[in-house]
């Protein structure tokens, strides 16, 4: 669905413009509703658009594409580790709520994101970021609480790529092995949500993000073994 992002970046859709409805995009591009929703989720993660529930989806101003945390390039590894602590609390509860409230459609979209993630791992493309973001955003949608999705849509595109890049590259891990491990953690979260087990979903998400933080901590130590002072 590169066509939509090209319209925005090329100026055909300007900041403040309302995006076409799902049905209109389906008719214009000849794609399914599922494909359209996935594309909108990616545009949200890239901070190109914002969805206002009950109103529609609107193109954002260019400067609004940065997270409220600042540009990714401005964040240090220690910043990312601190934000992962925040995400552990936020997303563990989101996973529990998703297990209680998810619909079959939510589950289908999460499965689609995980299948895409697996495909990137299998093909060794190393470009699983969009699928990773999509999975976490779909889980947030499944809570039925739009504020989870609003916050994570700002965190996701900034934090997930940086944890992947730093943890794998700085620790000199094999990217395929690294992403395979992350994928297994995602599957544990999905399985708990699928069987409507909120406690297991919370535990699986907490484990996933705690592992991410620990991997990043080890990567930081490998890159800079100098002891940190308080």
Automatic annotation (TrEMBL):
It comes from Paraburkholderia humisilvae. Residues 1-21, 208-230 are annotated as: Disordered. Pfam families: FCD, GntR. InterPro entries: GntR_C, TF_FadR/GntR_C, Tscrpt_reg_HTH_GntR, WH-like_DNA-bd_sf, WH_DNA-bd_sf. Keywords: DNA-binding, Transcription, Transcription regulation. It comes from the Bacteria. This is HTH-type transcriptional regulator LutR. Residues 211-221 have a biased composition (Basic and acidic residues). One of its GO terms (molecular function) is DNA-binding transcription factor activity. Residues 1-62 form the HTH gntR-type domain. CDD domains: WHTH_GntR. The keyword Repeat does not apply. SUPFAM superfamilies: GntR ligand-binding domain-like, Winged helix' DNA-binding domain.
